[in-house]
């Protein structure tokens, strides 16, 4: 099995997004070291947010404020996506969920949107067509901006 970051829980609430999961496809002890979550904007891969991930054996967890995305409010009018990876500097693992045998999570799992304070968009986690976890930022309608 190819090493991956298998997400088991997603917690979008109170202006934060938290994820909990485990590293799979790695030999015992290979997961040690300092791991970080990277959140990379698809339309501009140079825009990356980084967060320390807590690791306990093969289990990982990480949480961050949606307000951190406000710095990237460049007035887009549609939607933008950010991809999540775990990295230890040597390996980069895509965050997703495949081991539950549920295919097509994009149409099944719908997480709530949270307004990004000080920005003209909201954000929500979602599963891609490949069952990876990403963030979608969507411009607020004029009524919601007021």
Q: How would the blueprint of this fold be written?
A:
Layout: E1 4-13, E2 16-24, E3 35-41, E4 48-56, E5 59-65, E6 79-87, E7 92-96, H1 105-108, E8 114-115, E9 121-127, E10 133-139, H2 142-145
Parallel strand pairs: 1-7
Antiparallel strand pairs: 1-2, 2-5, 3-4, 3-6, 4-5, 6-7, 6-10, 8-9, 9-10
User: Structural class, from secondary structure content?
Assistant: mainly beta
State Rg.
15 Å
Q: Can you summarize the main beta sheet?
A: 7 strands, mixed, barrel
Oligomeric category? single chain
- What's the helix count? 2
Order of helices and strands: EEEEEEEHEEEH
Mean pLDDT equals 91
Give the % helix.
Answer: under 10%
Strand order, largest beta sheet: 1-2-5-4-3-6-7
- List the uncertain runs: none
The coarse overall form would be globular
**Beta-strand content bin:** over 45%
- How many beta-strand segments? 10
Distance between the ends:
49 Å
Please give a structural write-up.
This protein has two helices and ten strands, in the order E-E-E-E-E-E-E-H-E-E-E-H. The protein is 5% helix and 49% strand. The protein has helices at 105-108, 142-145, and strands at residues 4-13, 16-24, 35-41, 48-56, 59-65, 79-87, 92-96, 114-115, 121-127, 133-139. It is mainly β and 146 residues long. A seven-stranded mixed barrel has the order 1-2-5-4-3-6-7. The chain is globular.
